[in-house]
Amino acid sequence: MRVLMVYCASPEMGPEQAGGIAGYVRELALELTALGHHVGILSSGLVYQPAGTGLEPFWRAMEPYRGIDRLEVVNSPSLAPALWNFARADQDGTSAALDAVLSDLVRSWNADVVHVHSLEGLAGSCLGACRSVGSRVVMSLHNHHPFCPQVYLMRGRRQPCFDYQGGCACIGCEAGIDIEHERRRRAGEVEGAGPSIPPPAMPPIQRFADDGSPAPETAELWRRGHKLWRPLENEPPGRDAARDVRNSFGIRRQVMVEALSSCDRVLAVSDFVRRLAVSMGVSSEKVITMPIGSRSAERFKTGQPGRGSEGGLLRLVFLGFNNYYKGLAMLVDALGLLEPAHRGRVHLAAYGPGCPSIRERAEAIRPRLGGLELGGAYRPDDIPDLLSGRDVGVVPSVWWDNGPQTVMEFQSFGLPVLGANLGGIPDRVVDGVNGLLFRGNDRHDAARQIRRLLTEPGLVGLLRAGVRPGPTLAEHAAEVVRLYEQTLQSPSHAEAGQN
C-alpha cells in the first residue's frame, strides 16, 4: 500500500523542533514502513524561493528519510505554523494553486491513501484535490486548526471561544505578522530571526504571607474572580454557534467543515475532539475516535506498588512546554492553596521548554514547597530518567487539549495521572481508578485532589495499581492499516454517486 502522510513539518524535524504531532507522524510512518508499506511524508508552508525564481507553488522530492519518501511543497501561499498565517487565515479554505499542486503530486506519487495530519501550510480544498485523482483521504484531528485559524480555539489564546460570532470574533484575535516579509526571509532575501508573536500572559502570581495566608492582593483577585482563573467545563461550543457565517473567517470554517465531511474518514484523537467536530457540523458518519499509540507503551513496567505519601513527600512531575495552555502556572497556584503543612510535603519537578521560568511563581508560595526541580527541553530518551522516583504525573491543561501525549508517557511508566477534566485527558484518566481528575482551570478543585493524595492512606498506591498503558505504536499502526484497507474496499465518492 502506498500511503502519503501530510504534515507541515518534515520528518527529520521531530518533536524537539516541531512538537508532538511531528514526532507521532514520523514514528507512525516508520512503523508503517516496517510493515512493508511504501510511505511518504509531505510538508508544506515552510520552504520558499527568492522572487526571481518565481513565486508559484510547486512540489519536489527530497532525499528519503530512513526509508520514507520526503516531499515538500515550495512557495505555498499559506505559511506554517498556522499562527504565522493568521493575517491571511481567511484564505485557508480554498486555494486553486495548491489544489493543482496536490492533485499533481498525489497522482505522480500514486498514493493509495492520503493521510492528512494537519492542513497548516495548505488549504481545506486540498482534501478534495487529493480525492479528485482517485486517492482515499483520511484526516486526523490532532488540533483545532480546521475550526480555528490560530489552532487553540481560544480568544487571544487566553479565553475559550464558545461563540466565534460567525467569524466576527476572529477579527483582531491575533495580530498576525507581515507574511510577505516572512516569505522573503525564508527565501533568504531578508536577514534576521523569524517573527515573534508574544505568548499569552500568564495569570497573576498569587502571593502569600509567611503564615500561608493569602496576601491582600491575592485575596482581592480571588474575590473578583479574575478572568484567567475561571473554571472550564469539557463541553464543546454549541452547534448553532458553529453554523453562523458572517464574514470570510466564517466562510473559512464552513469550507473546512465541508472538506472534512467529504473525507473517507476523520479520525478524532479523543472523544471530546469527536464531539467537537460533530458540533461544528462535520458529518457524524465520517468521524470516529481513534487514540494514537506510543512507543513508550512498549516499555511499560508495572513496577512496585506506590508507597503513598503518608509522612513523606508526594513527588509530582510535569513534562512539556511551560506555556499558558499547558497549565503549569495553574498547578503552582493550586499548590499555593494548600495548607502550609501540606504544601511542605509536595516535591514538584517540571521539565520542558520554559519550565525554569516558573521559579518566581513557585517561590511566591510560603512556606516553600518540599522541593522544586526545574529543567528545560528534553529528548524522548531522557524520559525514563525524568520519571524515575516520581509518584504522580500531572497534566493540568487549561484548554481543550486534544489528546496530550504526556498522559501516555506517564502511564507507560506506571505513573497515575492528576489531570484536568478537559479535552482528551479524561479519555485515558479514569477518576479514582488510574488517577484523579479536577475541573479544568479550577485551582481550588486541583488543590482538593492534591490534598487527597497527601491525606488518604494508600490512595497513591491504589491509583498506581490501576495504571495500564495505552496502545503501543505497533498496535496503533495495525489499527490504522485496517482502517486504510476498509476505505480502499468501500465505494469511492465517484462510485457512490453513480449508485
Strand content: 15-25%
Tell me roughly what share of residues is in helical segments: 25-40%
How many helices?
19
Provide the number of structural domains: 2
Instruction: Tell me the Rg in angstroms.
Output: 23 Å
For the largest sheet, list the strands in their spatial order. 3-4-2-1-5-6-9-10
Determine and state the CATH class of the largest domain: Alpha Beta
CATH architecture of the largest domain: 3-Layer(aba) Sandwich
User: Count of DSSP E strands?
Assistant: 16
Structural class: alpha/beta
Q: Average pLDDT across residues?
A: 90
N- and C-termini, Cα separation:
27 Å
Oligomer: single chain
Q: What is the molecular shape?
A: globular
Q: Low-confidence parts, pLDDT < 50 over ≥5 residues?
A: 301-310
Major sheet details: 8 strands, mixed
Q: Any idea what the CATH superfamily of the largest domain is called?
A: Glycogen Phosphorylase B
Query: Would you give the CATH topology of the largest domain?
Result: Rossmann fold
List descriptors.
single chain, 499 residues, Rossmann fold, 2 domains, eight-stranded mixed beta sheet, 19 helices, 16% strand
Helix/strand layout:
Layout: E1 2-6, H1 14-18, H2 20-34, E2 38-47, E3 58-65, E4 68-74, H3 96-109, E5 113-116, H4 125-132, E6 136-141, E7 154-155, E8 159-160, H5 179-186, H6 216-224, H7 239-243, H8 248-261, E9 265-268, H9 271-280, E10 287-289, E11 314-319, H10 328-336, H11 340-343, E12 346-351, H12 359-363, E13 371-375, H13 383-387, E14 392-395, H14 405-412, E15 417-420, H15 425-428, E16 435-438, H16 443-455, H17 459-465, H18 473-489, H19 493-498
Helix pairs in contact: 2-18, 3-4, 10-16
